[in-house]
């Protein structure tokens, strides 16, 4: 790019000079006139100044426009087109990451493993990359993959909130609904409060939707009632539209005076309480078996027999062989 004018005995930048004479060097904040018209003569600092000019914004812009003149190609448009292509590829890879997480979540498959390399999520993406060159290229880069644990959790939270919004909208469309709730301790000994809503949809069909588990520090009726009211407020569901309540027979839930059902009735008098029929059936069967010695003994024998067979691989194999033989006959 450096030329020497023997008449003026000065050095000039051929690229900057050519582009400037064409009248298209207009966007740089500082045009270096010494390399365009006046000419460079400070030979003591020549090498240093040449390097500074080569890295300047003026020279870089001139190079792009010089190439554009020679090839008759709009460089700015080419750069913009390449940027758009990269954006499309990045968006496509992100959608594949989201769809992979959605698939694992819907199928109930654990996302992570003992290590990230052996996780179901990474293995699924590696499998999909065999049919996608852009995904294969994306996974091979060292950073900015959008695959960290934090991003996985964020994507899953966004998807779960989207599902909840759709479910809640269905409840709002139905206007009136009933609430179903229960509390129990999980394996970590924490109290988990499950909450469902029952309603009739536009097709005159009954739907029951699960709206989540919620932690509870206490199982008193007041605390559990506050949790229910907080859930309804969070989903913008009015208590005035409650037409039913369904809990088990625990005193804190179904108590006539201080139970959850009594407290909800004070807020909405049309929210009638119904004892959970499944829980009722369980109590009836249990009491019936206790009252009949034959039933109780039979169930105990069956339980002991199951344990006897399962405790020995040899006995289990014999049992399976006998079962299959009887099926054939």
Automatic annotation (TrEMBL):
<feature type="domain" description="DUF4371">
    <location>
        <begin position="35"/>
        <end position="259"/>
    </location>
</feature>
<protein>
    <submittedName>
        <fullName>Zinc finger MYM-type protein 1</fullName>
    </submittedName>
</protein>
<dbReference type="Pfam" id="PF14291">
    <property type="entry name" value="DUF4371"/>
</dbReference>
<dbReference type="InterPro" id="IPR025398">
    <property type="entry name" value="DUF4371"/>
</dbReference>
<dbReference type="InterPro" id="IPR012337">
    <property type="entry name" value="RNaseH-like_sf"/>
</dbReference>
